[in-house]
Structure formats: structure tokens, C-alpha cells
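Data card: per-record layout.
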Amino acid sequence: MQERPVRISSGKVTLDGDLAMPDRPRGIVVFAHGSGSSRHSPRNRHVARVLQDAGLATLLMDLLTVEEEAIDMYTAQLRFDIGLLAKRLVGATDWLAENDLTKNLPIGYFGASTGAAAALVAAAERQQAVKAIVSRGGRPDLAFDSLPKVRAPTLLIVGGDDEPVIGMNREAMAKMKAERELVIVPGATHLFEEPGKLDEVAALARDWFLRHLGS
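The structure for this 215-residue chain is written out next.
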């Protein structure tokens, strides 16, 4: 497994990312982190390692610049700017399509919390490129208008003790037209911090991406 730092242009900004490439990758998964998080998120990196072990490439990237993160730390506004975050994901998707290492790989999105909403909006804009989506404790309600336009098979994973978010995900499923599935992990809260629960998420995500990104 080779991981290298990358710089991704998206509009007027350049974002930092970490690209991990196994030998003969079966696809690549772009991570869209949740509120107030970054590419260094230990939860996303845990999931990424499981995907890498299964032969999938991963791209963990910051959706905000260093300057924007400093502002967001005090205002908490940019982390809920789904349109902005989705635009950055679209930029990363286009970057992957042009990069010699990744241009032939099917693309998946793994979104957490508000990042899941951004992933759904971006997938609606890049219908041909995005082949699968996994949402962990996601807020698909924040992408409500884009849900009918999503074509990628979508797995929604929610903690069994995260009751408000369960309802949000069920409402989102009713709005979607693509293949979708809701999995409720018993005994898990919003961040899946309970012992073994994040491992369940990682296994579910791995199996979903392997099914839809590569044979």
C-alpha cells in the first residue's frame, strides 16, 4: 500500500489530500468527512484501512482550506454549507478522472454526517462517474432536493440509538429512486464509538463497495 500526499484544485482553492493506492485497485473511494472533521479523522482512517486491505484505493481529503477551517472553528458555518462541500467533492471527482493513476477506476463516496449530504449532492451532479455511496450516520435530509437525481447505489448506515437520524434516513430513502438500503447497527450512537461498532460499519462499507465498484 502506497500513500502519498496530493493537492487537489477545486475552483479557486487547492485542497490537501492523502491518496492510498494498493496494487491493482478495484476502485477508489473518496471520503467526505463530517462536521468539524478533516482528512485526519481517526474514524474515517479506520474505515479506509479496511477498504485498502480489500484492494480499494482511497482518497481522504480536506473539504476546507486551512484558513477556512480556522474560521469554521469559531463560526461552525462552513461545515453546514452543503453546496460548498459538494462543489469541492465534484472537483475531487474531476481530478481523479484526469489523474493517470486513477482515471480508469470506478469511484465511490463514503460520507459521514454532513459529509454524506455533500456526497449525495455531488453524486447527483456526477451521475456517470460515481458508482456507489455509503453514508455513516449521515444527514441525507440536507441533500433533499438532490436525492431523486442520485443514480449510484446507496447504503445508509445509522446507529440504533441515533433515533432522530434514523427518521431522517428513512425519509431520504422514500425520496430516492436509485438502489438503496438502510442498515441500523444496534447499540450504536451517532459516532459509532461503542466497541466493535465502527468495525461493523467498515465491513458493511467494504462489502457494498466491492459489490458495486469491482468484480
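Known properties of this structure: The chain has one domain: 2-213. The chain is about 40% helix and 25% strand.

See the next section for split statistics.
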